[in-house]
Amino acid sequence: MTKAFIFDLDGVIVDTAKFHYLTWKNLADSLGIPFSEEKNEQLKGVSRAKSLEKILEWGHKILPKAEFESLMFKKNEEYLSFVNQMTEKDILPGVMKTLDYLRSNGYAIALGSASKNARLILSKVGLEAYFEEIIDGNEVTKAKPDPEVFLKGIDALGGTPKYAIVFEDSLAGIEAANTACMTSVGIGDKSILKEADFNFQDFIEIDKSVIETLIKFKK
Ligand code: G6P
Ligand code: MG
Fold first, then answer.
1. Count of domains for the chain
2. Which family does it belong to (predicted)?
3. Same domain, residue pair 158 and 53
4. Which of 7, 11, 61, 203 could form a disulfide with 17 if both were Cys (CB 3.0 to 4.6 A apart)?
């Protein structure tokens, strides 16, 4: 089999990571729980419910189920108010060039995201058609760092894990790809994503020769 590519969404394809940060910060502030960019790193790639559980844990708070659900709903409503304004201008630099290259060379491409808003976001920025398979937060039961989302992605593409190359901006996602024995490519801060097989600041750095290197790499 030729190699297949699995993309995370938030913080890899689009800059929605900043909207997640803002809306979690507002929620934490409203509960009087200290929240920082450093803490936010631990929420990247993590499902909505797990993220709220972590924030409450940091604040030593336990909430009744109904209140927990209502906070998740509120957070998502605020997040969606940003998402609804998104256009193709929100696609991160270099992403289009990479997707076009992979597609025109016949490589299989899937999305592997913890977000339940993934399809909405892809349609907002006009990228749905690039993905042969979309595995998102509605289809997984175990959050990253569990490899479920990526294993389902490669399975849907008809491949096996060692042929998969995963692009991720989160610690949890890199761990998930490594656990699945896939090639892990960190997008963003190398000092944070040190466990990745490869690191790049963004997709501008990922040219044709880099893609060839990723394809030849054996874990
Ligand atoms: C991604 C983001 C997380 C987010 C999760 C769930 O993995 O990195 O920050 O919490 O998706 O997103 P959702 O859109 O379903 O709230
Ligand atoms: Mg991400």
1. 2
2. Belongs to the HAD-like hydrolase superfamily. CbbY/CbbZ/Gph/YieH family.
3. no
4. 11
